[in-house]
Amino acid sequence: MNLRWVHALLILLSAALAVLFGVWCLVRYGRENGVGPLLAAVAAFAVSFGLIAYDSWFLRKTRSLR
Fold it and tell me: Does residue 66 lie within any of the structural domains?
């Protein structure tokens, strides 16, 4: 496994972690009052979307590298 794929895997795992954090924040929002957990969930989902977009860009950009 070369460095390119390790980088892509770590970015993908980070995106999955951000999604899990967003789900956890939504569960907390359902149990508590306040808008903080909802804002954190929206931010976590936005970060995960950004990480997935970055990962696809990175893989396209480095396709020709060996």
Answer: no
Is residue 33's pLDDT more than 90?
no
pTM of this structure = 0.86
Q: How many CA atoms lie within 13 A of 27 on its CB side?
A: 6
Whether residue 18 is contained in a domain is answered as yes
CA–CA–CA angle 53, 1, 45 (5° rounding): 25
Contact 16, 45 (CB under 8 A): no
Domain of residue 13, residue span = 3-61
Residue carrying structure tokens 């977009």: 53
Region of residue 34 (left: phi > 0; alpha: psi -120 to 50; beta: else): left
